[in-house]
Known about the structure:
Layout: E1 3-8, H1 10-13, H2 23-31, E2 35-40, H3 52-60, H4 68-75, H5 77-92, E3 97-100, E4 107-109, E5 118-121, H6 124-131, E6 135-138, E7 142-144, E8 150-152, H7 158-168, E9 173-178, E10 196-201, H8 202-210, H9 218-227, E11 231-235, E12 243-246, E13 253-255
Parallel strand pairs: 1-2, 1-9, 2-6, 3-6, 9-11, 10-12
Antiparallel strand pairs: 4-5, 7-8, 10-13, 11-12
Bound molecules: adenosine-5'-diphosphate and aspartyl phosphate.
Amino acid sequence: MSIVIQKFGGTSLTNINRKSKFLNHIKKAISKGHRLVIVPSAIGRNGDPYATDTLIKQLENICAEIDPRKRDLIMSCGETISAAILSHLLEAEGYPAEPLMGFQAGILTDDNFNSSKILEINTDRIFKILSENKIAVVAGFQGITSNMDITTLGRGGSDISAVALGGFLKADRVDIFTDVPGVAMEDPRIVPTTKYIKEISYDDMYKMSLNGATVIHPEAVKLGKEFKIPIRILSSFEESCGTLISDNKGSKEIVDI
Length: 257
Ligand SMILES: Nc1ncnc2c1ncn2[C@@H]1O[C@H](COP(=O)(O)OP(=O)(O)O)[C@@H](O)[C@H]1O
Ligand SMILES: N[C@@H](CC(=O)OP(=O)(O)O)C(=O)O
């Protein structure tokens, strides 16, 4: 069974509805016969009702000093809401889907609240869902400790959830859908004329993301290398070949996308 992980970032999920463009990528992968695990982030950005920063503010408005366990509990809510909405949307479109919070998907972390590490993923429940020909929609960014406390993986951590799931499920690849068509030489929001990179090695991408290429979390790249799983960065809103991150001899081919 060929398994593909598709992660959708917060910017891709703004105004989520039955006409959302990102749905085309899900439908295309299903039509190709892939089993899908979808990993959504929280919808939108600061100010949007379920965005991570909006949720944190609910506690900050009361008192700036926040117990990390409570902070993680509220921060995880955005992704939980996304999993519920997205799985409902997929069913409405005729694609049976099951939502899972991180703990229901078997994602065990350490107790370093606010930037926890994934220790293990018990994949039984996801495999069961996939074997029933359903899409598994796993809330990104969150997990659970052995003491049953909800944790989050650090800002931008849904990328880590997606790659870790890909590794533990032995998926064919991880597709990270975002609001730009791939990895560029510079941040395209700052340099709109920048050129895009067709292929890049894990090592080069790791250095780029440490140096500010926020399009993927550095820990996700590191995990990708450990699991030897190819990662693609693609646009949610259009068809593009995107950027492939793999072990391919450090090649860095620059293209106009
Ligand atoms: N080198 C780069 N290539 C592509 N995007 C970059 C780069 N550096 C920074 N970015 C920024 O990363 C953003 C996508 O990441 P992010 O805002 O976390 O989106 P998402 O909501 O999909 O997780 C892009 O909008 C872009 O401005
Ligand atoms: N929602 C979390 C996790 C995340 O990965 O978000 P995004 O994929 O939208 O950057 C955050 O804002 O940090």
